[in-house]
Amino acid sequence: MKKVIPIVSGHTPAPAFAGGSLADTRARAMHDLRISVTDRCNFRCVYCMPREVFDANHQFLPHSAILSFEEIARLARIFVGLGVQKLRLTGGEPLVRRDLHRLVAMLAELPVEITLTTNGSLLAKQAKALKAAGLQRVTVSLDSLDDATFRAMNDADFPVAKVIEAIEVAAAEGLAPVKINTVVKRGVNDQDIVRMAERWRGTGHIVRFIEYMDVGSSNGWRMDDVVPSAEVVKRISARWPLEPVDANYAGEVAERWRYVDGAGEIGVISSVTQAFCATCTRMRLSTEGSLFTCLFAQSGHDLKSLVRGGASDDAIRNEIAAVWQRRADRYSEIRTEATSRERKVEMSYIGG
Ligand code: SAM
């Protein structure tokens, strides 16, 4: 068994936050917070939680180590006070965490957008409660429309039809338009790109093709497995011409393209071939309450000890502000085959 150990640094005394808008060392603002509510998942996607590593012997976090809903809601409120405008619940698979709608209801009291990324397997049952609790939008991951390919990629023998049903239920409950995440791995599902575009054209939903990334240390990433977004756009455009669209807001992860014939839009997320570190406004709060300022980080900043050690909101606010103000990371700009082999935190732990 290979054990995947997250690395978390201790905290240093932080100067008092003086208010105003926070900028890091590269003048990037703090805009989005992704919250991982569990490190567990019922899928074993080959590029994320390969079964050889995340097997029956893998030690997931014990319940006592993970932040409670009350602790998450308190931290989220402090982040919002520092300028965060969007919260995304993720994991692991967020919908395996019991009663997630309760957390959504607590977060819905904050004046920010609340979204969720899910593999869709448990969404049809929970969509109504999540919407009622205040969830605004949902992103559903679906890597292929070919059942055999999809079952092989999720390595949990989960069928395409159930994910499509979940997307339709979510949309009917008012969580539309749904974003659909497709990670493209060369030789595995890239033959499905045009079919995927065709399936969602004209539905109002937005498929986003994601370059396969070297997250964590367990997926055996190789540059040769990456299909550059430019190739994705070219292949789809050859069938239905596409034109670029302006971002919805500064720092948006996906680059938007729309069909010239008016059948909607797609997105591409090109962390490998067109690094967007310069405009990255995201932070991640791990399942056990560590703060990470980069998806490819090797260590995080422990907030749980502050929360459980009786620190005041002001003290926690100062610590978070100090972490952001010191932030200098730009991993995707300096990525090489060699950096891809460095020991990084797993995506299921840090939150995708
Ligand atoms: N379980 C949920 C899901 O499947 O959407 C949320 C967590 S998952 C880690 C979040 C997103 O990260 C998914 O869309 C997944 O496909 C994507 N992802 C995971 N590993 C990736 C990798 N190596 N490269 C690119 N995207 C990846």
Helix fraction? 25-40%
Q: How much of the residues is beta strand, in percent?
A: 15-25%
What would you report as the Rg, rounded to the nearest angstrom? Answer: 19 Å
Overall shape: it is: globular
**Which ligands does the model contain, each kind named once?**
S-adenosylmethionine
Major beta sheet, strand line-up: 1-13-12-11-2-3-4-5-6-7-10-9-8
Structural class by sheet pairing and helices:
alpha/beta
Write down how many β-strands occur, each being a DSSP E stretch of 2 or more residues: 13
The arrangement of helices and strands along the chain is: EEHEHEHEHHEHEHEEEEEEHHHHH
Give the rounded overall mean pLDDT. 93
End-to-end Cα distance = 24 Å
DSSP summary: helix tally:
12
Uncertain regions: pLDDT < 50 for 5+ in a row?
1-5
The largest β sheet comes out as: 13 strands, mixed
Quick recap of the structure?
This protein is an alpha/beta fold and 352 residues long. It has twelve helices and 13 strands. Helix 1 (69-81) packs parallel to helix 2 (100-107), helix 1 crosses helix 9 and helix 3 (123-133) runs parallel beside helix 5 (160-175).
Structure description:
The protein is α/β, with parallel strands linked by helices and 352 residues long. Helix content is 30%, strand content 17%. It has twelve helices and 13 strands. It has helices spanning 69-81, 100-107, 123-133, 147-154, 160-175, 193-200, 229-239, 304-308, 313-326, 331-334, 337-340, 347-350, and strands spanning 8-9, 32-36, 86-90, 113-118, 137-141, 179-184, 206-211, 242-245, 255-259, 265-269, 282-285, 290-292, 300-302. The protein has a 13-stranded mixed beta sheet with strand order 1-13-12-11-2-3-4-5-6-7-10-9-8. Strand 6, helix 6 (193-200) and strand 7 form a beta-alpha-beta unit. Helix 1 (69-81) runs parallel beside helix 2, helix 1 (69-81) packs across helix 9 (313-326) and helix 2 runs parallel beside helix 3 (123-133). The two termini are 24 Å apart. Residues 1-5 have low confidence and may be disordered. The structure holds S-adenosylmethionine (SAM). S-adenosylmethionine (SAM) binds next to strand 4, strand 6 and helix 12.
